Here is the input.
Amino acid sequence: MKKVIASFLLLILLILAIVWSLPQPAQTFVDKVVPQVIRRWDVQEFLKYSIALSPEDTEKAKNQFFIWKQFGELQRYQRALPVKTQRFSRQRQFMVEATFEKGRVNLMVDVVRQGRGWAIASFSLDSPWGNALQKIIS
Here is the structure.
């Protein structure tokens, strides 16, 4: 009986180790990272979680975030909704609705699997003031 219990406990520990080592879902990544990035339009947070950018794309991101800061601080974040999801794809796309001091915007966020985690591959937004604000990273 003790061997059965010991085997059962060992099996549970093995299952827990496997579950804890699984990568987080893409939606969990987006819902964790995007609010950090857009709370105050922190380009350094964006660069920390994005794919490796060329110097030109890094400069483009800095300029774009400078413009996006005019929306003000984040007031409300709604959970990311999957837009394009293929079950075994390494890339996912999400739409996020967020409200800032100056109004509401819709963000499109593409993420790509990198190793055991995710990275932002594309970040763009649309607002009621028009789509003059462009996509970062193509």
The chain is about 40% helix and 30% strand. The first strand starts at residue 74 and ends at 77.
